[in-house]
């Protein structure tokens, strides 16, 4: 699946990563460059000197393997003041991961919405260590991101629900590697309609650093993981093309981010926000599927009442159908005996 990320979501992720002048922001499945533009707009107010302006010109790095989005991304960055965009028309998964061990191949900040749901060729899998070879593109991009994130770097990555609760050998190996070598500190659960009308697939944002958390247990870089569920804003049943996510909708997350606390829904007792230790997560086979969205409960009625409701709805529909047919006949100028038919 390839879905353009709402601008409010790219802006929010960049704000949480907070890139600074002198750092490089990378997106290795950049599409038309939405994350890179958000990064540039975040950096622009920091420009004070000629040296800052020069650093701004080299602040972003992007890759995209489809030609049309690549051209749009180049145009996008030119329009946002980058004279020679460092963008590459290439398959980001097409090189052996060992290629990126050199510091020059790494970036300080990574913000991405990798494609997911697709499969890769066998030759591409050979670029990855045996335990990380997956047919799922989102899995391979997670490995690539970990390889290309500089020491002390920060990442914000959108992943589908399947990555969170998947426990197959490859997903488990990737998540264990993430917890052992990176500080996965926050997972934001996103509403299923955030990519509407393109897809209703549920997605999440993983925030992690290439650093070791203070007091992390031995053999782990992560100490604990905070989960937060972004519920629909008041007045919204779901996001849509005419009612997309706005940056103001992320304000509750920003407030919680600075003052983290566990939040429980008093009505049904479900967790909106909760913290789990790395040991708890490892003991659950790296199940990241926490603070889920509550499912609508279906009321089961007694048989008599159920049948009465069914017949009432059927009569209502039949009346509406007869009314519509009558209007059609009036327009056409002839009449059909509906009862006879």
Helices, strands, pairings?
Layout: H1 7-17, E1 25-27, H2 34-43, H3 50-57, E2 60-64, H4 67-79, E3 87-89, E4 107-112, H5 122-125, H6 137-148, E5 149-160, H7 161-165, H8 169-181, E6 183-189, E7 203-209, E8 224-229, H9 251-258, E9 263-264, E10 271-277, H10 278-283, H11 303-332
Parallel strand pairs: 1-2, 1-4, 2-3, 4-5, 6-8
Antiparallel strand pairs: 5-7, 6-7, 8-10, 9-10
Helix pairs in contact: 1-2, 6-8
Question: Describe it for me?
Answer:
This protein has eleven helices and ten strands. With 341 residues, it is an alpha/beta fold. It folds into two domains: 277 residues, Rossmann fold, CATH 3.40.50.150; 44 residues, no CATH class. The chain has a ten-stranded mixed beta sheet with strand order 3-2-1-4-5-7-6-8-10-9, with helices on both faces. Helix 1 crosses helix 2 and helix 6 packs parallel to helix 8. 35% of the residues are buried.
Summarize the structure.
The chain has eleven helices and ten strands. The longest helix has 30 residues, at 303-332. It has helices spanning 7-17, 34-43, 50-57, 67-79, 122-125, 137-148, 161-165, 169-181, 251-258, 278-283, 303-332; strands at 25-27, 60-64, 87-89, 107-112, 149-160, 183-189, 203-209, 224-229, 263-264, 271-277.
